[in-house]
Amino acid sequence: EGLKRGVFINDSDGNTLIGKVWPGLTAFPDFSSPDTQEWWFNNLQRFYSQVPFNGVWIDMNEPSNFLDGSLKGCAETDLDSPPYTPGVLGGTLRSKTLCASALQKSSSHYNIHSMYGLMEAKATSSALKRILGKRPFVISRSTFPSQGLYSGHWLGDNRSQWKDLYTSIAGMLTFNLLGIPLVGADICGFGGDTTEELCVRWTQLGAFYPFTRNHNSMDQKAQDPTAFSPVARTAMKEVLLLRYSLFPFLYTLFHHAHANGHTVARPLLFEFPTDEQTYSVDKQFLLGRGLLVTPVLEAGVTSVEGYFPKGLWYDFYTGDSLVSSGEKIQLKAPLDKINLHMREETIIPLQRPNTTLWVSSGQPLHLVCALSRGGLAEGRLYWDDGETVDTYENDQYAYIRFRVEQNMMTSEVLHSHVEATYITVETVSFYGVKTEPVKVTVNSQEATFSYRTNQVLTVIDLGLNLSQNFTISWK
């Protein structure tokens, strides 16, 4: 069918270029051609009628080839052997890819080689919108600027080694800077056999990748959580459930990435540009502006050193405060814990977790407010149905601003939508309330609360509808 419709890349003689990839002898779709894009849609649609899939994972799309150029090699042209060859794999442009002189609809392969993955992602995203009538989900190995509009990315074939765990942070942060925020590495490593300790630590870090996926080569030992001891399994399960509980926070960060080009995972230097100590921090990162992640990246340790920029920080789990002058601090890190800290003046919306987002996205919210010394905090929440295309552009969303000042929290609906009516706020915790309140009121009605000696105030049993403004105050 592809030959009949002329959808493949040709060699310099105008014949279909044949290479070799996983299925064996392979022709390469020319995604620069509208005819190929339509053929791609038709075949994805045909497959969907037999196997209703949710998304598409596109691989080997650099394009990668087990041969150099093609079955017939490449013509000796200025494109295939240019006067200057950059320091590429194999020392030639054809090495493990297509001939530079290959012919595509819009140009020679030489001119658009680096855009192959982008063009495939764009064609795949467009096809999925037509087939599903919903937002597309595409993960691609090859990328090019602007691809964040069409796909996410995983960081390619890594290995089950501690150094690969460490370097994944820089990879994740780099792609966020490049406008591809949905990114992560293969958790526990792709090549080689992992160890239980490495896999636990990698799952803990990976739970905070914007794109979280455990994946390994088919000839390696199993590395899903059930392959390990009960202790390891529990540690992995807990951190994955924690990721699900952070969903409203992550979803809002992705909205800001979509609407304003922000990062989801970001280096500390983005938030603290005047603190030169942050410039070299590559073992920690922030989600948004306010959640600091400090993973363990070495074997056999139960503590980790983290850099804390000047200011007030709170242990995410307990609310214990930490005042930093801009210094490195040693943190306890047993095998079942990844250190998380909230920055002062932030509010993070959490949700009761469950095993799928289909279930957990309807659960009640828990708001965690990290107060500054002056008692201030602010946060946002974006909410929609999770699957309709262009909800932001078509005003089909809710947007809520939470603020704390002068012992009062206000929730203000800046943009209303029916989706918000399905969600309630169940509990609110305030970290850094200096004195125990004598009374807490919710919308002027007295409310049940608790206060701990570490200055954490929690108000429970609220049942407040997210679609309506509310206030919580204390005296």
Q: What is the percent of helical residues?
A: 10-25%
**How does the overall form come out from the CA principal axes?**
globular
How many helical elements? 10
Structural class: alpha+beta
In short:
This protein is an alpha+beta fold. It is built from ten helices and 28 strands. The strands form six sheets. Strands 17, 18, 19, 20, 21, 22, 23, 24, 25, 26, 27 and 28 form a twelve-stranded mixed beta sheet that branches.
Describe the model.
This protein has 475 residues and is of the alpha+beta class. Helices cover 23% and strands 26% of the residues. The strands form 6 sheets. Strands 17, 18, 19, 20, 21, 22, 23, 24, 25, 26, 27 and 28 form a 12-stranded mixed β-sheet that branches. Strands 9-10-11-16-13-14 form a 6-stranded antiparallel β-sheet. It has a 4-stranded parallel β-sheet with strand order 3-4-5-6, covered by helices on one side. β13 (311-315) and β14 form a beta hairpin. α2 crosses α4 (116-132) and α6 (196-206) runs parallel beside α7. The longest helix has 17 residues, at 34-50. The radius of gyration is 25 Å and the shape is globular. One of its GO terms (biological process) is carbohydrate metabolic process.
Architecture blueprint of SSEs:
Blueprint: H1 2-5, E1 18-21, E2 24-27, H2 34-50, E3 56-58, H3 109-112, H4 116-132, E4 138-140, E5 152-154, H5 162-177, E6 183-184, E7 186-187, H6 196-206, E8 213-214, H7 230-245, H8 247-260, E9 265-266, H9 268-271, E10 285-287, E11 291-294, E12 303-308, E13 311-315, E14 321-324, E15 327-332, E16 339-343, E17 345-351, H10 357-360, E18 365-370, E19 377-383, E20 398-405, E21 408-415, E22 424-431, E23 440-442, E24 445-446, E25 449-452, E26 456-459, E27 464-465, E28 470-474
Parallel strand pairs: 3-4, 4-5, 5-6, 7-8, 17-19, 18-22
Antiparallel strand pairs: 1-2, 9-10, 10-11, 11-16, 12-15, 13-14, 13-16, 17-18, 19-20, 20-21, 21-28, 22-26, 22-27, 23-24, 23-28, 25-26
Helix pairs in contact: 2-4, 6-7
